[in-house]
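2024-03-11 09:14:02 INFO worker-7 job=invfold-0412 stage=load source=structure_tokens
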């Protein structure tokens, strides 16, 4: 075994740690959040796994923790001996009471009561910004109805129900049988841990003991919610790239504390429960190659522009560039660097919206690729050939993931400056403004000294601190071009509007 990882399971909730090179004392230093309900069994199952160079996995040891026996609101440092294996696992477990999810009927809507709404608003006001930092806000979703759904049964009807997902929270409506225009009229309440999460609403067809059939899906970023307004959303396919049949009517209210949300932006995102790994896809691989190619071409064109200035291909351009270079270098101060980035934000803010709409359209066109033919899983008689195919698939899948990470990183930087998410761009401007003033007033050596002291003493002040990069945590909240298309709202056909329906009834 050359690599090691840990799997944790509490009921249906499962996590997998990052994979480390095998050593006698591996340190993962990762945090996982579970939902523990006091009226259920609270046994946390932990397994340590090893993996060899051929990707064969073997369980090395196990241990269990009874969550119900642990005290609340304190850090429980546990050294757990592993069964069937030498060694032990050191864990830090904290039980924290929190606001849970809830489901209710439309007649008992929590935020409809003025006194209760006032109490919730007071809880997330600016005066309480430094209390309970993990409780960022609350989201209320009214699932009203759906219309014109796909007929999944032979009878020409469907048995639809609606599943709502926000981070690791999942709630669903009841099933309405034999209906293509169901009305659920349910209210769902979610606690908000990260205001940059995305609410996913999926409509399924109940199919008895079989897995439910997909009827449509929509993804709504929390920061794009229009409070208290009923909205009609056109359903999309599973990849959220193309329109699907039917619409769904939702009404949402979001109350959150902007200070808590801003601080949460610079911490690691909550990890998702283990899901099925994404399969190798020629379509996604081709799309990621195209994204990286566009990013590379943008950098190449910038370098060519600078080279043309040095080569005096255009006398006017080279003269202006030469004068700007002399003036900038002669008068340059360090505080001018964040100031220049601020000017770039300002330029993109006042730029016509036409350019932004065009970039979204380009992203949509780049994603509109013909569906792949699924002929990759043909059986072979020779075992050696099968292993080689799996090895090639593993390599290509790794390359696909690397290409996606590179493309997403570049697109997120671009979308930060393009004001794709105004909250994040404004937050970046605020940080740059503070950095400009700080660099102007305080000598650089003092800033470097404070930074170094903080880095060197961080482990001494908190031995169990989890390493993170604030800049990467910030960029992880900015959507890539693919996510922009997935989160974009499709235009609803006019046939679903109430006015059109009244006219057709007449």
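2024-03-11 09:14:09 INFO worker-7 stage=emit residues=506
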């Amino acid at each position: 075994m050359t690599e090691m990882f840990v799997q944790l399971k509490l009921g249906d909730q499962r996590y997998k740690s990052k994979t480390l090179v095998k050593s006698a004392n591996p340190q993962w230093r990762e945090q996982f959040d579970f939902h523990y309900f006091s009226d259920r069994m609270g046994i946390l199952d932990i397994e340590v796994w090893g993996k060899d160079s051929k990707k064969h996995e073997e369980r090395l040891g196990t241990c269990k923790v009874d969550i119900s026996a642990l005290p609340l609101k304190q850090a429980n440092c546990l050294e757990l001996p592993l069964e069937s294996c030498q060694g032990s696992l050191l864990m830090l477990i904290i039980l924290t009471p929190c606001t849970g999810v809830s489901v209710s009927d439309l007649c008992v809507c929590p935020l409809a009561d003025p006194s209760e709404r006032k109490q919730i608003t007071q809880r997330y006001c600016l005066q309480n910004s430094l209390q309970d930092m993990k409780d960022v806000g609350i989201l209320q979703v009214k699932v009203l109805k759906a219309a014109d759904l796909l007929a999944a049964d032979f009878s020409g009807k469907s048995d639809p129900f609606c599943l709502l997902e926000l981070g690791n929270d999942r709630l669903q409506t009841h099933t309405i049988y034999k209906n293509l225009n169901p009305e659920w009229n349910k209210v769902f309440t979610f606690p908000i841990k990260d205001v940059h999460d995305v609410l996913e609403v999926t409509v399924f067809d109940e199919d008895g003991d079989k897995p439910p059939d997909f009827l449509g899906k929509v993804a709504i970023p929390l920061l794009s919610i229009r409070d208290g307004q009923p909205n009609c959303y056109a359903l999309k396919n599973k990849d959220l790239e193309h329109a699907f049949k039917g619409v769904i009517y939702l009404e949402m209210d979001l109350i959150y504390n902007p200070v808590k949300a801003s601080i949460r932006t610079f911490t690691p995102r909550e990890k998702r429960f283990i899901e099925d790994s994404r399969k190798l896809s020629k379509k996604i691989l081709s799309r990621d190659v195209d994204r990286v190619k566009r990013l590379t071409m943008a950098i190449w064109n910038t370098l060519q522009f600078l080279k043309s200035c040095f080569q005096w291909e255009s006398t006017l351009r080279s003269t202006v560039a030469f004068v700007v270079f002399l003036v900038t270098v002669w008068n340059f101060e360090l505080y001018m660097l964040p100031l220049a980035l601020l000017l770039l934000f300002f330029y993109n803010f006042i730029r016509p919206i036409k350019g932004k709409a065009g970039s979204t359209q380009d992203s949509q066109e780049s994603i509109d690729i013909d569906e792949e033919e699924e002929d990759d899983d043909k059986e072979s008689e020779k075992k050696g050939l099968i292993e080689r195919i799996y090895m090639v698939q593993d390599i290509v899948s790794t390359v696909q993931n690397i290409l996606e990470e590179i493309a997403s990183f570049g697109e997120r930087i671009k979308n930060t400056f393009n004001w794709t998410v105004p909250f994040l761009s404004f937050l970046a401007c605020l940080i740059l403004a503070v950095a400009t003033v700080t660099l102007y007033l305080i000598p650089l050596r003092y800033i470097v000294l404070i930074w170094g002291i903080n880095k060197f003493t961080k482990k001494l002040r908190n031995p169990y601190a989890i390493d993170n990069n604030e800049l990467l945590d910030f960029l992880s909240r900015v959507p890539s071009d693919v996510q922009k298309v997935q989160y974009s709202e499709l235009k609803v056909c006019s046939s679903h509007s109430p006015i059109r329906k009244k006219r057709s009834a007449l």
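2024-03-11 09:14:09 INFO worker-7 stage=report msg="Confidence is low (pLDDT under 50) at residues 354-360, 365-381, 497-506."
2024-03-11 09:14:10 INFO worker-7 job finished
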